[in-house]
Amino acid sequence: MQTEWIDLPSPAPGTQRRLRRVRLGPPQAARRVHIQAALHADEIPGLLVASHLLALLEQLEGQGALRSGIDLVPMANPVGLSQEVMGRHQGRFDQGTGGNFNRAFLPLTDKLEARLAGRWTDDAEANTRLVREASLTLLDEALASAWSETAWMKLQLQRWGAEAELVLDLHCDSVAVMHLYTHTEAAGVFQGLADHLGARAVLLAEVSGGDPYDESLSRHWVELAARYPLHIGARAVTVELRGETDVNDDWARQDAVAILRFLASQGHVDGALLEACCGPAAVPPKACEPTMLDAVETLHAPHAGVVIYRAKPGDRIEAGQTVAEVLCPLTHQRTLLQARHAGLLYAHNLRRHAVRGMDVARIAGTVRVIEDGPLLGL
Questions:
Q1: Looking at residues 91-111, what average pLDDT do you find?
Q2: Domains in the chain: ranges and CATH
Q3: Between the CA atoms of 4, 9, 14 and 17, what dihedral angle is there, to the nearest 10 degrees?
Q4: How far apart are CA 309 and CA 352, in angstroms?
Q5: DSSP 3-state assignment of 15?
Q6: pLDDT for 378
């Protein structure tokens, strides 16, 4: 095991933040996995899962069970972790710019196509190496000119992830069941992860909008493979570890073991040695059928007021069913929030006082409800 510390550019005299990457497995391994936690720094379940993962990975490495290099960033956002405002932790948005920490990563498709013009061959293996090398070079160049601590941090995380063929970005929702976001092309690969984790929803998109971290590492491979002979060199997934208050050792260890079992199924961890470490496991049943992200129905508060939920995450919702009510405390007006389409209620807001237009609940359905624009929330 090797631990790498990277100093972020100091935002002000007398201050310094650092990123930590732990590298496990064979140092010269041809295959790599990147796992990081809490890019949204107030999404705490991933921090505990990462702690359990690190302990298990150290044990497995000592037994020679790691077949691939596995990189773990156990806390991916020291900037957001330090943002306390009047007793409240605010780790989703950068206080300096207002930007979402998981948006506006560097899109690489057009830059790679321009950089590699005239260098493409008919050999998919050679092209795959070219794309990997050019991706790392482009990110190194971007790092050299990054203008802020947050921009530098995000590019460093993207640079680390670009070394890997498999990327897991650990997040959580407000109040939610386990669910995943990934590229449509990667659905088959990450179905196994969903099954091991017991995910209730897998949400797919080719372009979700906003350039989140996972897409910054996977989308260019798919888009370039449609134009040139090329293997898909990286697949990435956002893992939503239930809700923000779902922080306990039992679930965290369970999730860490599930991730390792998935990695074993992909050949990155020795399955027999993993069973000796964590116990035998039956092949998990299929947890859910993937659905499209543009079929997610978001229920919004039509006016401010008290939110009273009539359903909970994990419930199957029928078209026309009331999911929540919003009560105006001045007029006592109650407004029903009803689903237009059937689906799975996979997340709702932890807040019990809504402002007008607030996202209240999300339902994963099968009917397209978003025609254009970004598919992700703020």
A1: 97
A2: 2-289 (3.40.630.10), 293-365 (2.40.50.100)
A3: -40
A4: 9
A5: coil
A6: 66
